[in-house]
Amino acid sequence: MSIFGIGIDILSIKRITNIIKKKLDKKFSYRILSNYELNILLYNNYNKKNYTKFLANRFVIKEAVSKALGTGMKYGLKFNNLEIRHNKEGKPYLKFLSHAKKITKNINIKNIHISLSDEKLYVCAIVIIEN
């Protein structure tokens, strides 16, 4: 295996807080989250802090994935076609959906490593894609 791409992103949680304050969070959520992730968000009765952190964490990981792919948000790649799940130990992993599957079909991805860090003011993610 070799490294296909590395992506990193950092995000101020205040940016997501401002989106929520402007009541744009529903529109933002549908643009960023897959149906699976939306269900987690909507049915877990998160308090405002956890709701904001959930959105921020998903956004920063997906931005890092787009950078690791080398495409950014081009060629029809959409954040809601990238789904973050967790294994039984809690480790995040990525699932490509819909058009994202088509875009990544020729890359022959073997492994995707995701590391996420969050603090009071910022969230940061790094993604390494191996093929």
Describe the structure.
There is one protein chain. By secondary structure, this protein is an alpha+beta fold. Helices cover 42% and strands 28% of the residues. It has a 3-stranded antiparallel beta sheet. A hairpin with a 3-residue loop joins strand 4 and strand 5. The longest helix is centred in the middle third of the chain and has 22 residues. It is globular and about 40 Å long. The termini are close together. The model has no long low-confidence stretch (mean pLDDT 90).
Offer a quick outline of the entry.
The protein has 131 residues and is an alpha+beta fold. The protein is built from 5 helices and 5 strands; from the N terminus they run βααααββαββ.
